[in-house]
Amino acid sequence: MISLNFSVVAKLLLQALQGLIKGLFFPIQWKHIFILNNQIFFSSIRYYGICLFFQYDGLSIRSSYQVCDKTIYWLLPVYALFLLIGSDGVRAEDWLYTIRSGDNLWNVAERHLVSMKYVPRLQQLNRIHDPHHIPPGKVIRIPVEWATRRPGDAEIVDCYGTATLRRAASAEILPVTEKLRVAIGDEISTGPDSQVTLEFRDRSRLRVESESKIRLKQAEVLGQDGVVMTEVELESGRTVNIAPHGSEPATRFRIRTPAAVSSVRGTRFRVGADKQDGTTRSEVLEGLLEVSAQGRNVQVREGYGTVTRPDQSPVSPVELLPGPDFSATPDLYERVPLIISLKPLAGARSYRVQIALDPEFRQISTDLVAMNLPLRGRELADGDYWLRVRGQDVSGLEGKDGVKKIRVHARPEPPFIMAPQSGARVGDNRPVFEWATRPDIKRYLIEVDRTADFRESRKYESDSPEGYFMLSEPLTPGEYWWRIAAESEIIGVGPYSDSVSFKVPVPGPELDSVEIEREEIRFAWPAGETGEQFQFQMARDSGFDNIISDVLVSEPRVVIPNSGGGRYYLRIKPIRADGEEGVFGPVQSFEIPYRFPFFLPFLGFM
Asked: Looking at domain 149-319, which CATH architecture does it have?
């Protein structure tokens, strides 16, 4: 059928009416009308008493001039209606056949047409002067109704996940497997995170994505060359059509949805049918697509898409969103489920996320729509994957793909950290690390560093079944980070845990001197930082349960009353100018001799 612009046809009818009125009252004038590229055009040339005569021979429309009177205007409305009904000047149903070496109209007709009687008409249609000698490479048009036809089918070449096929002939329901033949009328339904790929006789492929339902409505082979006319009904879900480069240009492929028909020749496009409201979304990735609904045809070129709602015409095509920016997306994932960082895409309302086991995306393990960033995937086994993301605009059209290779290395999972917890202050410069253990782990790997990037970390190993490890060397005061990984016999070394910070405080100083006098005791220790204070404690026991002196001083010295003879214990804790407290230094002890009364020595002589 010829593709017409209805506004142009309306102008043709209006022109006829204007011409009729002019013919009644004024000298007859005429505007030239011609057809080019399936559209009707009007020239501004006027002729006095000359009319353009159109002749239709069943194949094309030809024009010629002749002298006419005003009655010719009565024919124009009839001609306009005729165009609306179905002129075949340039037919969408023509088979574009490429002449090969040795071809002539006679052997072409013998191989591909239902009758040799079409040879003269084929010669006339293609304006061939010598039907016996046609240059190879010339493309001729063959109306499909003249061509021989035989039933075709399709074959399942890839399947992943859960999918079923319902036979039209027997209503039998089968699990979809590779090499399964799909006949006309058969239905295929895919489950979540599943997909099926069909291949037709012309090597074009249709990928049925997750949670979709299709029916093979037509699969016919024209002539002897395997040129295929295919029509698939998409009840709900999404499909991707892929035609191989260099495929036969006569191939016809239609996707029919509840709202529209998408027709294509040798291209790559996506069609989605919304299960809820029946809206059809068509997106062209390569080539050209024609979408038809409610008497209107819309041509959609590469990089554009259109939306068709039930009982409405397709909207004017809009440009698809570009592919996403993966510059903020990491290559390695050590936690599952995945949390995928992505720079926001301007104009995107949501994102389709697909993760596959192969770069061709034949085995898609994750297929979901994410409304917000970051993207959150499902739990995956360790290994290499391919990530594909495309933005969805406000109308639901999906944009161009962005593809990135990623790796999942999340097992064995790192142990749960028990101590020190994030931000903790350890009480010793040789801290103890504790974690939850697992019976399948043979050893644990510990890293400690002054920075969170672990570029110059200290590495330790522990096979402790209790999940306990103490550093062999002391740490200088300051902030540290630590993390831990597990190693199993089967999997090997897993990822490290998230880094945990802890602080090793400044230790208390040791005494430099002790001066014991009759009434008081003087203590002194090394000076600290500017503005530093010290908490000094002295007790009669090493556990400091019986503290007899607890003072805060701003100098590295203190004087306390002499409490008499006996053993005493003391410790000192620094407090920085910003209020940060250190830890008490090592416990030190000293002894004060007992005082004897002056008369006791004389009692021995009495």
From this structure: Sandwich (2.60)
